[in-house]
Amino acid sequence: MKTTIAQIGKHVGETVTIGAWLANKRSSGKIAFLQLRDGTGFIQGVVVKAEVAEDIFALAKEMTQESSLFVTGTVREDDRAPSGYELTVTSLELISEAKDYPITPKEHGTEFLMDHRHLWLRSKRQHAIMRVRNEIIRATYEFFHKEGFVKVDPPILTGSSAEGTTNLFHTKYFDEDAYLSQSGQLYMEAAAMALGKVFSFGPTFRAEKSKTRRHLIEFWMIEPEMAFMDHEESLEVQENYVSYVVQSVLENCRLELKALDRDVSRLEKVQAPFPRITYDEAVELLKKEGHEIQWGEDFGAPHETAIAEKYDKPVFITHYPAEIKAFYMKPDPERSDVVLCADLIAPEGYGEIIGGSQRIDDEELLKQRYEEHNLSDDAYKWYMDLRTYGTVPHSGFGLGLERTVGWICGTEHVRETIPFPRLLNRLYP
After folding, report:
1. Nearest to 235, CA basis, from 276, 190, 294
2. Which of 63, 86, 246, 423 has its CA 20 to 30 A from that of 346?
3. What are the residue boundaries of the Aminoacyl-transfer RNA synthetases class-II family profile domain, all occurrences included (predicted)?
Protein backbone atom coordinates (compact mmCIF):
# COMPACT_ATOMS: atom_id res chain seq x y z
CA MET A 1 0.00 0.00 0.00
CA LYS A 2 1.37 3.40 -1.00
CA THR A 3 1.09 6.20 1.56
CA THR A 4 2.83 9.31 2.91
CA ILE A 5 4.74 9.95 6.11
CA ALA A 6 1.97 12.27 7.33
CA GLN A 7 -0.56 9.42 6.99
CA ILE A 8 1.64 6.63 8.26
CA GLY A 9 0.03 6.53 11.72
CA LYS A 10 -3.11 5.08 10.09
CA HIS A 11 -1.16 1.97 9.05
CA VAL A 12 0.45 0.65 12.25
CA GLY A 13 1.37 -3.02 11.78
CA GLU A 14 0.85 -2.82 8.02
CA THR A 15 3.39 -2.97 5.20
CA VAL A 16 3.49 0.27 3.22
CA THR A 17 5.54 1.94 0.50
CA ILE A 18 6.54 5.61 0.52
CA GLY A 19 8.40 7.71 -2.03
CA ALA A 20 11.12 9.60 -0.16
CA TRP A 21 14.49 11.29 -0.15
CA LEU A 22 17.36 10.30 2.12
CA ALA A 23 17.88 13.30 4.41
CA ASN A 24 20.64 11.64 6.46
CA LYS A 25 21.79 8.22 7.61
CA ARG A 26 23.95 6.41 10.14
CA SER A 27 24.83 2.77 10.63
CA SER A 28 26.24 0.57 13.37
CA GLY A 29 27.50 -2.56 11.66
CA LYS A 30 24.41 -4.68 11.28
CA ILE A 31 21.78 -1.93 11.40
CA ALA A 32 21.33 1.13 9.14
CA PHE A 33 19.20 4.07 10.25
CA LEU A 34 17.76 6.08 7.36
CA GLN A 35 16.33 9.55 8.00
CA LEU A 36 13.64 9.81 5.33
CA ARG A 37 11.50 12.72 4.16
CA ASP A 38 8.74 12.90 1.58
CA GLY A 39 7.53 16.51 1.78
CA THR A 40 4.77 15.69 4.28
CA GLY A 41 7.15 14.88 7.13
CA PHE A 42 10.18 12.98 8.40
CA ILE A 43 10.51 9.41 9.63
CA GLN A 44 13.30 6.99 10.49
CA GLY A 45 13.62 3.79 8.50
CA VAL A 46 15.48 0.96 10.25
CA VAL A 47 17.25 -1.60 8.04
CA VAL A 48 18.41 -4.74 9.86
CA LYS A 49 21.01 -6.74 7.91
CA ALA A 50 19.70 -10.11 9.06
CA GLU A 51 16.15 -9.28 7.94
CA VAL A 52 16.70 -8.05 4.36
CA ALA A 53 18.40 -9.25 1.20
CA GLU A 54 22.14 -8.61 0.97
CA ASP A 55 21.78 -6.11 -1.89
CA ILE A 56 19.15 -4.14 0.05
CA PHE A 57 21.42 -3.73 3.07
CA ALA A 58 24.34 -2.78 0.80
CA LEU A 59 22.17 -0.11 -0.85
CA ALA A 60 21.12 1.23 2.56
CA LYS A 61 24.77 1.70 3.56
CA GLU A 62 25.96 3.10 0.20
CA MET A 63 23.10 5.49 -0.57
CA THR A 64 24.06 9.19 -0.62
CA GLN A 65 22.31 12.15 0.98
CA GLU A 66 19.23 13.38 -0.95
CA SER A 67 19.07 10.33 -3.20
CA SER A 68 15.45 9.50 -4.03
CA LEU A 69 13.94 6.09 -3.46
CA PHE A 70 10.89 3.97 -2.81
CA VAL A 71 10.93 2.48 0.68
CA THR A 72 8.80 -0.49 1.70
CA GLY A 73 8.46 -1.57 5.31
CA THR A 74 6.28 -2.26 8.32
CA VAL A 75 4.96 0.66 10.37
CA ARG A 76 5.44 0.44 14.14
CA GLU A 77 4.81 2.80 17.01
CA ASP A 78 7.85 4.27 18.75
CA ASP A 79 7.46 6.81 21.56
CA ARG A 80 11.04 8.02 21.08
CA ALA A 81 10.42 9.13 17.49
CA PRO A 82 9.24 12.76 17.02
CA SER A 83 6.25 11.58 14.99
CA GLY A 84 5.62 8.56 17.22
CA TYR A 85 6.33 6.05 14.44
CA GLU A 86 9.20 4.24 12.75
CA LEU A 87 9.47 2.10 9.63
CA THR A 88 11.09 -1.35 9.75
CA VAL A 89 12.41 -1.52 6.19
CA THR A 90 11.97 -4.67 4.12
CA SER A 91 12.90 -3.33 0.67
CA LEU A 92 14.52 -0.30 -1.02
CA GLU A 93 14.33 0.80 -4.65
CA LEU A 94 16.71 3.58 -5.74
CA ILE A 95 15.11 6.12 -8.07
CA SER A 96 17.96 8.59 -8.51
CA GLU A 97 21.35 8.84 -6.83
CA ALA A 98 22.34 12.33 -5.67
CA LYS A 99 26.06 13.00 -6.03
CA ASP A 100 27.98 15.51 -3.89
CA TYR A 101 24.92 17.19 -2.36
CA PRO A 102 26.20 20.65 -1.37
CA ILE A 103 24.32 21.12 1.93
CA THR A 104 25.79 18.57 4.31
CA PRO A 105 24.85 18.08 7.99
CA LYS A 106 27.73 20.39 9.00
CA GLU A 107 27.29 24.13 9.64
CA HIS A 108 27.07 26.41 6.59
CA GLY A 109 27.16 30.21 6.34
CA THR A 110 23.99 32.16 5.65
CA GLU A 111 25.09 33.41 2.22
CA PHE A 112 25.98 29.86 1.15
CA LEU A 113 22.57 28.64 2.27
CA MET A 114 20.83 31.53 0.52
CA ASP A 115 22.71 30.75 -2.70
CA HIS A 116 21.33 27.22 -2.38
CA ARG A 117 17.85 28.23 -1.20
CA HIS A 118 16.29 25.84 -3.73
CA LEU A 119 17.96 22.99 -1.79
CA TRP A 120 17.95 24.55 1.69
CA LEU A 121 14.14 24.34 1.63
CA ARG A 122 14.53 20.56 2.06
CA SER A 123 16.05 20.85 5.53
CA LYS A 124 13.97 19.94 8.58
CA ARG A 125 13.87 23.49 9.94
CA GLN A 126 12.92 25.12 6.64
CA HIS A 127 10.36 22.41 6.02
CA ALA A 128 8.75 23.17 9.39
CA ILE A 129 8.62 26.92 8.69
CA MET A 130 6.97 26.37 5.30
CA ARG A 131 4.40 24.04 6.86
CA VAL A 132 3.55 26.67 9.50
CA ARG A 133 3.29 29.30 6.74
CA ASN A 134 0.88 27.03 4.90
CA GLU A 135 -1.25 26.59 8.03
CA ILE A 136 -1.42 30.36 8.55
CA ILE A 137 -2.63 30.75 4.96
CA ARG A 138 -5.18 27.95 5.36
CA ALA A 139 -6.48 29.42 8.64
CA THR A 140 -6.67 32.88 7.06
CA TYR A 141 -9.00 31.71 4.32
CA GLU A 142 -11.02 29.73 6.83
CA PHE A 143 -11.41 32.69 9.22
CA PHE A 144 -12.52 35.19 6.61
CA HIS A 145 -14.86 32.69 4.97
CA LYS A 146 -16.52 32.03 8.34
CA GLU A 147 -16.84 35.78 8.94
CA GLY A 148 -18.59 36.38 5.62
CA PHE A 149 -15.75 38.07 3.72
CA VAL A 150 -15.37 37.82 -0.06
CA LYS A 151 -11.90 37.24 -1.55
CA VAL A 152 -11.02 39.94 -4.11
CA ASP A 153 -7.79 40.20 -6.11
CA PRO A 154 -6.51 43.76 -6.62
CA PRO A 155 -4.10 44.53 -9.49
CA ILE A 156 -0.35 44.13 -9.09
CA LEU A 157 0.42 46.69 -11.80
CA THR A 158 -0.91 50.12 -10.83
CA GLY A 159 -0.74 53.64 -12.14
CA SER A 160 -0.25 55.26 -8.75
CA SER A 161 0.91 54.63 -5.17
CA ALA A 162 -1.42 53.57 -2.36
CA GLU A 163 0.41 55.68 0.21
CA GLY A 164 1.99 58.43 -1.88
CA THR A 165 5.54 57.23 -1.31
CA THR A 166 8.39 57.09 -3.78
CA ASN A 167 9.60 53.62 -2.74
CA LEU A 168 8.03 51.95 -5.77
CA PHE A 169 9.32 49.68 -8.52
CA HIS A 170 8.77 51.50 -11.80
CA THR A 171 8.07 49.83 -15.13
CA LYS A 172 6.67 50.85 -18.52
CA TYR A 173 3.09 49.85 -19.28
CA PHE A 174 3.27 50.22 -23.04
CA ASP A 175 3.47 54.03 -23.35
CA GLU A 176 2.48 54.77 -19.73
CA ASP A 177 4.32 54.67 -16.41
CA ALA A 178 3.30 51.87 -14.07
CA TYR A 179 4.40 50.55 -10.67
CA LEU A 180 4.43 47.25 -8.85
CA SER A 181 1.80 47.44 -6.11
CA GLN A 182 2.89 48.26 -2.57
CA SER A 183 -0.66 47.65 -1.30
CA GLY A 184 -4.01 46.64 -2.68
CA GLN A 185 -5.84 48.73 -0.11
CA LEU A 186 -7.34 51.48 -2.27
CA TYR A 187 -8.79 48.90 -4.65
CA MET A 188 -10.09 46.90 -1.70
CA GLU A 189 -12.01 49.97 -0.55
CA ALA A 190 -13.75 50.00 -3.94
CA ALA A 191 -14.48 46.28 -3.57
CA ALA A 192 -15.91 46.83 -0.08
CA MET A 193 -18.36 49.38 -1.48
CA ALA A 194 -19.60 46.63 -3.81
CA LEU A 195 -19.38 43.53 -1.62
CA GLY A 196 -19.44 44.72 2.00
CA LYS A 197 -16.60 42.78 3.63
CA VAL A 198 -13.67 41.76 1.45
CA PHE A 199 -10.08 40.63 1.76
CA SER A 200 -7.14 40.25 -0.57
CA PHE A 201 -4.11 38.01 -0.27
CA GLY A 202 -1.29 38.74 -2.64
CA PRO A 203 2.29 39.88 -3.26
CA THR A 204 3.37 43.44 -2.57
CA PHE A 205 6.61 45.21 -3.38
CA ARG A 206 8.59 47.88 -1.55
CA ALA A 207 11.71 49.40 -3.12
CA GLU A 208 13.15 50.36 0.25
CA LYS A 209 16.91 49.93 0.60
CA SER A 210 16.56 48.26 3.96
CA LYS A 211 18.65 45.40 5.32
CA THR A 212 16.96 44.78 8.67
CA ARG A 213 15.86 41.32 9.79
CA ARG A 214 12.23 42.43 9.44
CA HIS A 215 12.29 43.59 5.81
CA LEU A 216 11.77 41.94 2.43
CA ILE A 217 11.54 43.58 -0.99
CA GLU A 218 8.73 41.25 -2.05
CA PHE A 219 6.29 39.98 0.55
CA TRP A 220 2.68 38.86 0.95
CA MET A 221 -0.12 40.85 2.54
CA ILE A 222 -3.59 39.99 3.79
CA GLU A 223 -5.70 43.15 3.40
CA PRO A 224 -9.31 43.09 4.65
CA GLU A 225 -11.60 46.08 4.06
CA MET A 226 -15.01 46.48 5.70
CA ALA A 227 -17.93 48.78 4.85
CA PHE A 228 -20.10 50.20 7.66
CA MET A 229 -17.39 49.44 10.21
CA ASP A 230 -15.60 51.88 12.52
CA HIS A 231 -12.11 51.77 14.01
CA GLU A 232 -13.07 49.98 17.23
CA GLU A 233 -14.99 47.27 15.37
CA SER A 234 -12.01 46.77 13.08
CA LEU A 235 -9.71 46.21 16.06
CA GLU A 236 -11.97 43.39 17.22
CA VAL A 237 -11.75 41.71 13.81
CA GLN A 238 -7.96 42.05 13.90
CA GLU A 239 -7.47 40.51 17.34
CA ASN A 240 -9.93 37.71 16.60
CA TYR A 241 -8.17 36.95 13.32
CA VAL A 242 -4.66 36.83 14.83
CA SER A 243 -5.91 34.71 17.75
CA TYR A 244 -7.60 32.31 15.33
CA VAL A 245 -4.45 31.89 13.23
CA VAL A 246 -2.16 31.31 16.23
CA GLN A 247 -4.51 28.77 17.81
CA SER A 248 -4.85 26.96 14.45
CA VAL A 249 -1.05 26.65 14.23
CA LEU A 250 -0.92 25.33 17.79
CA GLU A 251 -3.58 22.76 16.97
CA ASN A 252 -2.26 21.59 13.60
CA CYS A 253 1.51 22.18 13.61
CA ARG A 254 2.74 20.78 16.94
CA LEU A 255 5.43 18.65 15.27
CA GLU A 256 6.68 21.64 13.27
CA LEU A 257 6.81 23.91 16.33
CA LYS A 258 8.70 21.18 18.18
CA ALA A 259 11.19 20.91 15.31
CA LEU A 260 11.72 24.67 15.60
CA ASP A 261 12.19 24.48 19.40
CA ARG A 262 9.40 27.04 19.71
CA ASP A 263 8.20 27.86 23.22
CA VAL A 264 4.50 27.19 22.67
CA SER A 265 3.55 28.49 26.12
CA ARG A 266 4.06 32.01 24.74
CA LEU A 267 1.77 31.33 21.80
CA GLU A 268 -0.91 29.78 24.00
CA LYS A 269 -1.40 33.21 25.62
CA VAL A 270 -2.31 34.78 22.29
CA GLN A 271 -6.06 35.00 22.65
CA ALA A 272 -8.33 38.01 22.20
CA PRO A 273 -8.79 40.61 23.54
CA PHE A 274 -5.38 42.28 23.16
CA PRO A 275 -4.12 45.21 25.27
CA ARG A 276 -4.29 48.72 23.76
CA ILE A 277 -2.30 51.84 24.44
CA THR A 278 -2.38 55.18 22.66
CA TYR A 279 0.58 56.71 20.86
CA ASP A 280 0.71 59.35 23.62
CA GLU A 281 0.96 56.66 26.30
CA ALA A 282 3.59 54.79 24.31
CA VAL A 283 5.78 57.90 24.04
CA GLU A 284 5.55 58.48 27.79
CA LEU A 285 6.37 54.82 28.47
CA LEU A 286 9.44 55.02 26.22
CA LYS A 287 10.69 58.21 27.85
CA LYS A 288 10.44 56.57 31.28
CA GLU A 289 12.48 53.66 29.90
CA GLY A 290 15.23 56.07 28.83
CA HIS A 291 14.51 56.27 25.10
CA GLU A 292 15.08 59.59 23.37
CA ILE A 293 11.88 60.19 21.44
CA GLN A 294 9.67 63.21 20.92
CA TRP A 295 5.94 63.36 20.21
CA GLY A 296 5.45 63.27 16.45
CA GLU A 297 8.28 60.84 15.71
CA ASP A 298 7.55 57.37 14.36
CA PHE A 299 8.61 54.30 16.30
CA GLY A 300 11.59 52.23 15.24
CA ALA A 301 12.34 48.59 16.02
CA PRO A 302 13.89 49.30 19.47
CA HIS A 303 10.83 51.34 20.47
CA GLU A 304 8.37 48.66 19.36
CA THR A 305 10.37 45.98 21.17
CA ALA A 306 10.45 48.00 24.40
CA ILE A 307 6.68 48.46 24.29
CA ALA A 308 6.01 44.80 23.44
CA GLU A 309 8.13 43.63 26.38
CA LYS A 310 5.50 45.02 28.75
CA TYR A 311 2.92 42.50 27.50
CA ASP A 312 2.66 38.75 26.90
CA LYS A 313 0.22 39.23 24.01
CA PRO A 314 0.32 41.38 20.88
CA VAL A 315 -0.44 45.02 21.76
CA PHE A 316 -2.28 47.69 19.76
CA ILE A 317 -0.74 51.18 19.62
CA THR A 318 -3.54 53.52 18.56
CA HIS A 319 -4.08 57.16 17.55
CA TYR A 320 -0.80 58.07 15.87
CA PRO A 321 -0.11 61.67 14.79
CA ALA A 322 -1.75 62.45 11.45
CA GLU A 323 1.55 63.86 10.12
CA ILE A 324 3.30 60.48 10.13
CA LYS A 325 0.44 58.41 8.73
CA ALA A 326 -1.09 57.92 5.27
CA PHE A 327 -3.35 60.51 3.65
CA TYR A 328 -6.49 58.33 3.73
CA MET A 329 -6.69 57.84 7.53
CA LYS A 330 -9.65 59.45 9.29
CA PRO A 331 -8.82 62.04 11.96
CA ASP A 332 -10.15 61.47 15.46
CA PRO A 333 -13.35 63.59 15.63
CA GLU A 334 -12.33 64.73 19.14
CA ARG A 335 -8.73 65.51 18.25
CA SER A 336 -7.72 66.37 14.68
CA ASP A 337 -3.95 65.99 15.17
CA VAL A 338 -4.25 62.20 15.55
CA VAL A 339 -5.93 59.60 13.35
CA LEU A 340 -8.16 56.59 14.04
CA CYS A 341 -5.50 54.00 13.40
CA ALA A 342 -3.54 51.23 15.11
CA ASP A 343 -0.41 49.17 14.66
CA LEU A 344 -0.41 45.70 16.17
CA ILE A 345 2.99 44.90 17.71
CA ALA A 346 3.91 41.24 18.14
CA PRO A 347 5.60 40.05 21.34
CA GLU A 348 9.25 38.95 21.63
CA GLY A 349 10.71 41.71 19.46
CA TYR A 350 9.01 40.84 16.17
CA GLY A 351 7.59 44.32 15.65
CA GLU A 352 4.57 45.51 13.73
CA ILE A 353 2.55 42.78 12.03
CA ILE A 354 -0.62 44.78 11.30
CA GLY A 355 -1.28 48.36 10.30
CA GLY A 356 -4.88 49.51 10.06
CA SER A 357 -7.21 52.48 10.28
CA GLN A 358 -10.66 53.88 9.70
CA ARG A 359 -10.61 55.56 6.29
CA ILE A 360 -11.70 59.11 5.49
CA ASP A 361 -15.27 58.97 4.21
CA ASP A 362 -15.81 62.74 3.87
CA GLU A 363 -15.36 63.98 0.30
CA GLU A 364 -14.25 67.51 1.22
CA LEU A 365 -11.67 66.30 3.74
CA LEU A 366 -10.23 63.84 1.22
CA LYS A 367 -9.91 66.66 -1.35
CA GLN A 368 -7.97 68.60 1.28
CA ARG A 369 -5.66 65.60 1.80
CA TYR A 370 -5.08 65.37 -1.96
CA GLU A 371 -3.85 68.96 -1.93
CA GLU A 372 -1.66 68.49 1.15
CA HIS A 373 -0.01 65.38 -0.32
CA ASN A 374 0.20 66.67 -3.92
CA LEU A 375 -1.84 63.77 -5.24
CA SER A 376 -2.94 63.86 -8.87
CA ASP A 377 -6.67 64.36 -9.41
CA ASP A 378 -6.40 62.36 -12.63
CA ALA A 379 -4.71 59.35 -10.99
CA TYR A 380 -6.99 59.32 -7.94
CA LYS A 381 -10.35 60.41 -9.41
CA TRP A 382 -11.70 56.86 -9.13
CA TYR A 383 -10.79 56.80 -5.43
CA MET A 384 -12.66 60.09 -4.87
CA ASP A 385 -15.69 58.59 -6.63
CA LEU A 386 -16.04 56.19 -3.69
CA ARG A 387 -16.83 59.23 -1.50
CA THR A 388 -19.00 60.93 -4.11
CA TYR A 389 -21.31 58.01 -4.78
CA GLY A 390 -22.69 56.60 -1.51
CA THR A 391 -19.89 57.08 0.97
CA VAL A 392 -20.05 55.11 4.23
CA PRO A 393 -17.87 54.69 7.34
CA HIS A 394 -15.32 51.98 6.53
CA SER A 395 -12.15 50.51 7.98
CA GLY A 396 -9.44 48.06 7.04
CA PHE A 397 -6.02 46.73 7.81
CA GLY A 398 -3.06 44.87 6.36
CA LEU A 399 -1.19 41.94 7.93
CA GLY A 400 2.31 41.10 6.72
CA LEU A 401 2.45 37.33 6.26
CA GLU A 402 6.21 36.88 6.58
CA ARG A 403 6.56 38.86 9.81
CA THR A 404 3.68 36.86 11.24
CA VAL A 405 5.31 33.57 10.20
CA GLY A 406 8.59 34.76 11.74
CA TRP A 407 6.93 35.59 15.04
CA ILE A 408 4.94 32.35 15.31
CA CYS A 409 7.96 30.23 14.31
CA GLY A 410 10.45 32.23 16.39
CA THR A 411 12.87 32.77 13.48
CA GLU A 412 15.73 35.23 13.71
CA HIS A 413 15.30 36.68 10.22
CA VAL A 414 12.31 37.14 7.93
CA ARG A 415 14.29 35.67 4.99
CA GLU A 416 13.49 32.15 6.26
CA THR A 417 9.73 32.74 6.19
CA ILE A 418 9.21 32.90 2.41
CA PRO A 419 10.24 30.18 -0.05
CA PHE A 420 12.48 32.40 -2.21
CA PRO A 421 13.25 35.70 -0.46
CA ARG A 422 13.93 38.89 -2.38
CA LEU A 423 16.37 41.05 -0.46
CA LEU A 424 18.33 44.20 -1.22
CA ASN A 425 21.30 42.16 -2.47
CA ARG A 426 19.50 39.03 -3.64
CA LEU A 427 17.49 38.15 -6.73
CA TYR A 428 18.88 34.56 -7.01
CA PRO A 429 17.75 31.84 -7.03
Report:
1. 276
2. 423
3. 130-429
Task: Quote the CA–CA distance of 213 and 204 in Å, as a whole number.
Answer: 18
Beta carbons of 398 and 222 less than 8 angstroms apart: yes
64 within 8 A of 99, measured Cβ to Cβ: yes
- Yes or no: say if 115 and 72 are a contact pair by the CB < 8 Å rule: no
Query: CA torsion angle for 310, 314, 320, 324 (degrees, to 10)?
Result: 110
Sign of CA dihedral 308, 310, 312, 314: negative
Measured CA to CA, the distance from residue 157 to residue 45 in angstroms comes to 49
Q: Which of 153, 163, 150 is nearest to 383 (CA)?
A: 163
Residue limits of CATH 2.40.50.140 in the chain: 5-96
Instruction: Supply the pLDDT for residue 165.
Output: 54
Of 379, 386, 383, 357, nearest in space to 225 by CA: 357
Q: How long a stretch of residues is the chain?
A: 429
Alpha helices in 290-362 (DSSP H): 301-308
Do residues 366 and 360 make contact, with C-beta atoms less than 8 angstroms apart?
yes
Q: Measure CA 352 to chain center.
A: 13
The CATH architecture of the domain made up of 5-96 is Beta Barrel (2.40)
pLDDT digits (tens, 9 = 90+) for 265-280: 999 999 999 999 999 9
pLDDT digits (tens, 9 = 90+) for 401-410: 999 999 999 9
